[in-house]
Amino acid sequence: MCITIGNQKVKAQDFPADSLVYRSDSIQSDTIVNDTLSLNKEKPKKDLLTEPVEYSSNDSIILAGSDVSFYKEGKVNYGDLELKADFIRFDMDIKELYAEGMIDTSGQIAGEPVFKQGDEEFQSKSMRYNFQSKKTFVKNIITEEEDGFLHSESTKRLPDGEIHVKNGKYTTCDAEHPHFYVGLTKAIVVPNEKIISGPAYMVIADIPLPLVIPFGFFPNSSQKAMSGFLIPSYGEESSRGYYLRNGGFYWAINDYVDAKITADVYSRGSWGMQLATSYKKRYKFSGSFNGSYYLNKTGEEGINLTNKRDYKIQWTHRQDAKANPNSTFSASVNYSTTSYDKNQSYSLSERLTNTKSSSVSYQKSWPNSPFSLSASMNHSQNSNTDAVNMTVPNLNLTMSRIYPFRRENSTGETKWYENIQLSYTSKLENSIEATDSTIFQSKFKDFEKGYQHSIPLSINFKLFKLFNLTPSLNYKGMLYTDYVNKYYDPDLIADGDTGIIVTDTIQGLRYAHGWSTSFGTSISPKIYGMYHFDKGRLSAIRHVITPTASFSYTPNMNSIAPYYYRTVRNIKTGEVYYDEDGDTEEYSIFENGIYGTPSANGQSGSISLSLKNNIEAKIFAKNDTTGKPEKVSILDNLNFSTSYNPFKKQNKWSTVSMSSSTSIFKKKVSLQLNGTMDPYAYDTTNSRRSYGFELVENGKLFRLTSLTGTVGFTLKSQQGNNQNNQSGETSGEQMNELDPNNLNNTANYGTLTPSVNFDIPWSLRATYNFRYSKPALKSSVTQTLRMTGDFSLTPKWKISYSSGYDFKAKEITATSLTIHRDLHCWEMSLSTIPFGSNTYFEFNIHVKSTILQDLKYDKRWDKRYDY
Fold it and tell me: I need a surface site. Which of 251, 276, 411, 459 has the fewest CB within 10 A?
């Protein structure tokens, strides 16, 4: 028998008779690598070792009978199996490896076994592996299972990868001594699938809780969602009492669709249900649907009991750009009763939201064709007024601009008529305005309906390379389901007057059409001013002025177009529309039409004037050595605009609008200023805009009617700025399988506080708004200051806040405050809206990992149900 070490052979007689000991210092090499054990013994009847056993050691190898022991950084390789430890013993008779650590010079255990087979790797105190049964027996092991960690005193790993555990701990805490865990008397781990345990109990801070379950189930797969029951969370509210929330069932229908059905129950009679589903087809589409219904009971039975029903529907659908380049379908629906967010949401922004909108749209285009089709359903609502506007449907067929007289293969200079443009648009609308309680009770006749199409013909060319000329001819047709007829009835009495005007709406299809022609011209030159400086850091200032003047004119087409205007006796005084005798009023029979009247009554036109300014500077940086100045914006824009209508009888000039914006201090501070100035004075006698100019009557060029200013700045610590610079967006296709934890929480009862970045010590965003308004004699001034941000008291404590102040009302506006505490594997928060109509307090503590997301406690008190 001999041992082959590298290229050297050591015979058995070189060792003592009772044992074979070989030390690495007996040869030139300090380590033994790539060794193959060859024993000149009688071969067993059946050799279970089908591959060579390769080993190495950094200290010594002892051969005693059928045992071979390796000391200090021992390593054994067999197929895809690899074992490292400071002590390894190989029993060749029973084909078994045993490994453990050894006490080093400091008295500590070092070189504990590290076992690796395929993609699996773990470290333990000691372990045994049998080549015949292919079973592994491990003591005191910690393995990572997806987002969790499994601690075990005694573990047996079977050949199929299944792991049997005795006296184990399951936790999502990555500390060696976890802050919490689920104690498992015994358990079976099925890799990439599940963990099933016998009797289990909860332990927090080494204190066992009186919460024992007869068996446990933990998902252990990131590849496929699994169906199962959802454990409800529990807590207490001031108005609805104790509750169980978000209990229900999650159904993983297949790789593309899932669903979650949950319910909330309160001790004082309130209840709610939610349905959430997500779907995704790779390279095709993806989306989600959420619906919820609540019955909130407040007050006392027989005294002031109030039942309030709320519901909410949310639907999003996105089509992949690769699915069909010629047609797209998308949806973004957000509809709820007016009081839903105020009653069900714990988000300050959602509570203060006054408007919501929805859109479901489909677009279709045809290759090599100018035509395209779009269809949509739209909705908007205002929670302050309960008003709901809905359009079902809105159809549009358009033909993009074409040049009917342009040659296919043009040579030479383009003729003027080849620039003639033709396009076509048509649309069909059916809309209604109602309240959220009556919108679904509306009938077809309650909707405003109409169809319109137009064919504009125009040409655009330059005159003297300076003026843009745009003459056009437009045909417009409309189809309505009713029209208006007015008449004077002398026998009716209203407000003490004898005789009133009666308006009849006559049902029936009515087509109206008209012609209109217009002429437009515009000029928009750019004027540059450059100012250079020879000294100092300021190199140059550039001022760009862009004046624009445009004129449009539409002649009177009543002589060649149908006339849809009628007259009726006018019994009122002070009417804008009147004839010379003052006793008749003119009206359009389509004045209630959704598109108005196809042709204007009379000629019209306007002259529009605007002036744009932009100022930039070139500044050398401090200690500049490149000689290249940096461009800095001084004034992003300063714009003025107005218009003049020569065909109006009075007040031909419109108001002058002014807008300006810029940013300073390396764009950390933004400034905006907008205003409206009226060139006409105010008539105090008739309480309206005067026909006289402000300059003539009061000696001022303009009368300031409104002025709005905004100053905002954002500041972050240096760590926050660095993270923003290093952060990037994640791209790429996501997996087909759906994650139930990504489903939107329709009841808004998920983690109430946003994810907190404890690595950024502080951040601050402040906005100051100023508004001056004087449309008539009295003026009003409002000033508000809004501040949001957060700061860290310690690396584990953070406070986030949002508040403001109204200088006119002299009161603090909507305020929220949240205190966050990072508890390593837990997170705790205390959130409050301390005052106002939305007052509430909330305490929440939960496990960070989504695997044990139901392990949480929250308690709330809110004022929302004090109607």
Answer: 411
Sign of CA dihedral 332, 338, 344, 345: positive
Q: What is the pLDDT of residues 219-259, one digit of tens each?
A: 666 555 667 788 787 777 777 788 888 889 988 888 889 99
99-102 long-range contacts (CB < 8 A, ≥24 apart) are 99/74, 99/126, 99/127, 99/128, 100/125, 100/126, 100/127, 101/125, 101/126, 102/71, 102/72
Asked whether the beta carbons of 786 and 801 are under 8 A apart, the reply is no
CB 117 within 8 A of CB 141: no
**What residues contact residue 736 under an 8 Å CB cut-off, 6+ apart?**
255, 256, 280, 281, 282
Report yes or no on whether pTM surpasses 0.70: no
From the list 145, 160, 253, the residue with the least C-alpha distance to 196 is 145
Sign of CA dihedral 751, 755, 761, 762: negative
- Tell me the pLDDT tens digit for each residue of 619-668: 887 777 677 888 888 889 999 999 999 888 888 999 999 999 998 888 88
Which residues have CB under 8 Å from 575's CB, separation 6+?
Answer: 585
Beta-sheet strands, E only, within 555-654: 565-569, 584-588, 604-619, 630-644
CA distance 444 to 436: 17
Kindly report the CA angle at 7 between 4 and 12, in degrees rounded to 5? 35
Q: Which of 186, 206, 182, 207 is nearest to 198 (CA)?
A: 186
* Cα(694)–Cα(699) distance, integer angstroms: 6
Q: Which residues of 196-223 are buried (b: 16+ CB within 10 A; e: fewer)?
A: bbeebbbbeeeeeeeeeeeebebbbeee
Report CA torsion sign: 570, 573, 577, 581.
positive
Q: Which amino acid, 628?
A: K
Beta partners for 598?
none
- DSSP-derived letter for residue 199 is S
DSSP 123-183: EEEEEEEETTT--EEEEEEEEEETTEEEEEEEEEE-TTS-EEEEEEEEES--SSS-SEEEE
